[in-house]
Amino acid sequence: MIGSKGRRSFWTGRRWLAVPVLAGALALAGCGDFRRFETASIPTSTPAAKPPRPPAQSPAAEREHERILATYGGAYDDPRLEALITATVDRLVAASDRPDLTYKVTILNSGAVNAFALPTGQLYVTRGLVALASDTSELSSVLSHEMAHVLAKHAAIREDQARQAALVTRVVTDMGNDPEMTALALAKTKLSMASFSRQQELEADGIGVGISARAQFDPYGASRFLTAMERNAALKASRGDARSQDFLASHPATPERVRNAQNNARQYASAEQTAKGERDRETYLNAIDNIVYGEDPSEGFVRGRRFLHPKLGFTFQVPESFTLDNTAQAVIGVREGGNQAMRFDVVRVPAEQSLGDYLNSGWMENVDKSSTEDLSINGFPTASVTARGDQWQFKVYALRFGSDVYRFIFATRQKSAESERNARDTVNSFRRLTLDEIQAARPLRIKVITVQPGDTVESLSHRMSGVDRPLDRFRVLNGLDATATVKPRDLVKIVVD
């Protein structure tokens, strides 16, 4: 059964969430408790009632389910895609060692590439992962991998490990007369947990490949998709993407895992079994045709160097050589070379507190209070201040827009006229969106097309809209390496607006 249909915007629900600093430069500021304000969303697909949950969930599992929905944009409603995933899961369950178990899959409305499972049998897969996969066997490899975590009780084991680690932490803290011994004990605990996690991933890979193969899916789907994730991660890294929600953060696609997946597949890859193993590419691509790609405009979105938030009604632009990324917690900008970075988020500031007082209220260390300046940016009350860390220097702006206060934090390794100009130009570009701009905001989507005679990878990539490095993105989306070509009547994915 596929679940549920609730959604959220980039800032939804009118509640506050403490979040980590995502850019390394900004982490060095000593800034504490960055927060994200959330406000109601505008659904871009069919609205529906509150998501149904798997039967017999504990209160803790329900809370975790709600947390996951809040973190990953709610659930994505697409009946055609839900039907494909339901049929795939049914085949996998029937081929598993526990056909009596019940699983419930929720498609998450997030462009991140991720999937995970709860011990209850609740499985989650993002639409970003669905868009990256190229056939049903690749998707089945992800679903069977997550089912394997449930079958092997990995989540429960991890909880036990976490409790043991917390106990060790308390003990060594109480003993803490010898800092070196305390640090050593904690390091050993963390190392054992990391090693255990790698072992779990390899075990889940093996179990998952077996389930997929017995369900008559191509057993090499896992190794192909791991390779696609590696290429996708490399493309994101090349543009300074700091997003931390992707599958590779918890499921590293190391060469060891790729080799392990290939070796597992060979056990099922006799000539007869390979012939039987379905990729089901055409059915899969037809099911994902028109799926939302990347960010949902209701969450705010990036177009080139500009960030737009139609729901909240504002936009701003970063200078040339900066790359923008809309993460779940903030908008992050990184300058080519990594010597300048920017974070844009929203904070709670009481209406009676001045912006200058907020900037000097202690949430950031080493603030030069004498640098506080009151400004007006395009008619919006603003204040700025400077601060200094060990390796980075900071320029911070707080801007009041309606009842909300937005924060720009600029970090540079060395203050210069250029870094000052970049910060000033970015803040000065903050403005209201026009009604036409709001009405024109729409999501990017995957469009599946048929390759025609004369089409090439290069010519097809020119039909991509709204993405940077379209040639590289086209290859990643279609599982093509640097030398692969296309031929007439192939089905391929492109991104359109």
UniProtKB/TrEMBL annotation:
Protein's organism: Rhodopseudomonas palustris
Protein name: M48 family metalloprotease
Keyword Nucleus: no
Gene Ontology MF, one: metal ion binding
CDD domains, per database record: M48C_Oma1-like (cd07324)
Gene3D superfamilies noted in UniProt: Metalloproteases ('zincins'), catalytic domain
Region (Disordered): 42-63
Keywords (A to Z) from UniProt: Hydrolase, Metal-binding, Metalloprotease, Protease, Zinc
One example of a Gene Ontology biological process annotation: proteolysis involved in protein catabolic process
Keyword Hydrolase: yes
One GO term describing the cellular component: membrane
Domain LysM: 447-494
UniProt cofactor(s): Zn(2+)
